[in-house]
């Protein structure tokens, strides 16, 4: 090779990543399976025949090719996702993403019953100040979660059980975004079968958007869930009490960078089971809570108008119109529902914007539980809130919605780039890369 | 023991159904294969998917392995063909077929310092035709022109021509930027 190319080769070498350990293990397992199919199964030692069942296939493909504990932690974290909240503090102090780990195999090859190992995330290991921290004032962290249900759901029809009930909704126009979400659920169910077969249960909107862009397509607008996309980055921080079964409500307010009076309010409803319920939920796909009602009320004195992102028109906050109600027939263990509102407010008046009343019944419990939570005013804008706002703009551009800031892709990318922050796991950089891909595909 | 066995012996044994030989062969070449896939696609995700395609197809392909080829050369030809298959499969997405990269995706913050270089690399690679990119990917992987010719199924003269074209294009891109 001539000298002209030396610089180029150096750059290339610097840019070439190491193969992902999990994918490596999966790819090895796939190669071995196909090898067996071709040559007969007698050749491979170590995997008991009863693990070849359909349910075990995902685990098997992981286990068969594992080369070390890191691989196991990584892959099982994906399976266990949905029950775990990682706080910024822990991100700083723990290098490997901590997770309850579901172990299916001892390393001598003997199959054992699935068991949960308590990772450093669980409450015993949390410092008291972490547990007592007011979740609403420090809303940013990383949430690992996923529609675990989907990868274990035997039939796609079950998805319909989770379609929200519109009966309590006050206006017809609100039905639209939810209708889109229902269609999306069906779509995700189809995709989930594919994901399940490759032991990758996370089929979030962000993952679907990423997959589409990486294939060189713009995602179908209905696949893009703005609230879910933003929750990937402005992940809510929950009080993670492993002994408390509850539906948690996490509210995050963000100052929109495109207009001083515009706020974004992200609301996450998380079905948070007790540790011991985790495997039961995984196995039975059982309902966790039912008859969930959520009433979101913006204070008319503080908020002049609000709309759910995705709705066509803002709704003035006049008497009797400042509330929006949502009802869900059931939530499954680990399920998260994200909603995103845009509100116009003179926020200097107060440190709160309104309140949310949540009513629900846990499965197998007669008691109706009610909680009331304030909608907090946003903290001063920072790189994290700004980046989350850029994601909102990104999702809206992908949906083809009118973006309130009127941003172009170039403006959005520049803003996101400037607000990537410390980005210890490269997620913001990844998102900016996706924005660039989307820009090119949109041209 | 296995480490002493040549690639070619392993491949032959694997072609006859020796699972251990197959596993050893894959173990030995996986990482290098993945890196080639990255050079062919410019994206970690794409590279993982492409490596997956290759792993899935490898057992059947091995059955047709003929001892006259070096295993690395043969394996690279499998990889390049798999990359072309992927491009064809999504031929309806014209931009994707032509595109290369999304360097930022899955890149770790630790190499942020080389951002400018990477952006330049992405831009430059996207200005080359797929043929030039594939050729460049192999030559940068220390393949000789003769090996690259065998892998891509073209003459050695074609490889030399493509390399001079690629270098010319890269120089032009650089000069345009220096002017701008």
Could you characterize what this model shows?
The complex is a heterodimer of chains A (443) and B (180). With 443 residues, chain A is of the alpha+beta class. Chain A is built from 14 helices and 13 strands. In chain A, helix 2 packs across helix 3 (57-64), helix 12 (383-399) runs antiparallel to helix 13 (409-418) and helix 12 (383-399) packs parallel to helix 14. The relative contact order of chain A is 0.11. The model of chain A is unreliable at 41-203 (pLDDT under 50). Chain B is an all-alpha fold and 180 residues long. In chain B, helix 3 (44-63) packs across helix 4 and helix 7 packs across helix 9. Chain B is elongated and about 60 Å long. Chain B starts with 6 loop residues before the first helix and ends with a helix. In chain B, 42% of the residues are buried. The interface between A and B is large, with 52 and 58 residues.
Please tally the helical runs of chain A, counting DSSP H or I stretches of 4 or more residues: 14
Please state the oligomeric state of the protein chains shown.
Answer: heterodimer
Which bin fits the share of residues in helices of chain A?
A: 25-40%
What would you report as the Rg of chain A, rounded to the nearest angstrom? 23 Å
Helices and strands of chain A, in order, run as HHHHEHEEHEHHHHEEHEEEEEEEHHH
Which structural class fits the helix and strand makeup of chain A? Answer: alpha+beta
* Main sheet makeup of chain B: none
User: Secondary-structure element sequence of chain B?
Assistant: HHHHHHHHH
Q: Note the total helix count of chain B.
A: 9
Extract low-pLDDT stretches of chain A. 41-203
Rough shape of chain B?
A: elongated
Give the radius of gyration of chain B: 18 Å
